[in-house]
Amino acid sequence: MDIDGSLGEGGGQILRTSFALSAITGQDLKVRRIRANRPKKGLAAQHVTSIRAVSEICNGELHGDQKGSENVSFIPDKISHGNYEFDIGTAGSVTLALQAIMPVLFSVPGTSDIVLKGGTDVKWAPPVDYVKDVLFPFFRCYGIECEMDIIQRGYYPKGGGEIHVHLTTPSELSWDTGRINMNGAKGIINISGLSNKIAQRMKNSVQEIIDQTDMDIQIDERETNRSPGIGIVLSYIGQGKFLGKDMLGEKGVPAQIIGKKVAIEMNDMMNSKIMIDDLGCDQVMLLIALARNDPQITFQIKTKHIETNLMIIDTFMPGILEINKSNDYYILNKN
Q1: How confident is residue 223, by pLDDT bands cut at 50, 70 and 90?
Q2: Annotation marks residue 305 as catalytic
Q3: Quick one: which of 47, 59, 224, 335 has the most CB atoms within 10 Å?
Q4: pTM for this one?
Q5: Catalytic residue among 63, 81, 166, 305
Q6: Where are the alpha helices (DSSP H) in the chain?
């Protein structure tokens, strides 16, 4: 399979999805012009770790896997569950690396324990609490056992975070919401190396929008010897919905402004007809393509990442997924 890495979203999404599908389908892969339209072309540290991880998991043959490389080739072999450890070495996102790894391990039955080191809460990537509190409940509906321990937070620019992930994939992926507790709304504010008062202001601003009786908000405060940071993740698992909204703290932006913005957007989603938020939609598409039966996925905005994933999935598995518009939301269907 020959993939132009500059198409669609034009970034790491093409690379992660292509490598995962190459491993799953057993088709050889070439990706050229990687991130050709980005200011920094070619592979970044996080991309290198992601593709090396997929290659290790399926005992593949990988060429061009150096930082800055704009062309890579990959010959997959047999996928094996096991104990794996991958260190990005920078603040590159551990969850984006996990995004490439998980579908591969979901495609065959077995148990894996994965250690990932790098950035846990960084820009342009899902924070670890979003994966843990929104995506993992969705995965469990397919009978997948998934747990995450956040050993150390890692923020930009130094990283240094570490997560441990446990996955057990059943012999058949079949949807059943009865496997999980639809326990409603919750929030977590992570803070390291900063005053707890900042987190309290953020928490109070959320509870001005969403009553605390409806959303329990916890503060995860940790010491750090690297980069300080703060972030918030709100989640809602209830009434067949899997929703999350997150935001990182920014220098010069008051914590209460961030909390209020996240709360307003989360409130809007909870009152909408969508089943999953747009960030989550692109991250569950591969699993939906692999599973035996699926729910009807409704979401709000057809993002570039969703369009790119659909394009790559269709290249490897033609016609298996389609997206249709219905009034004020989109529907993802499996054919």
Answers
A1: confident
A2: yes
A3: 47
A4: 0.96
A5: 305
A6: 12-25, 45-57, 94-106, 128-130, 136-140, 196-209, 255-270, 278-290, 304-316
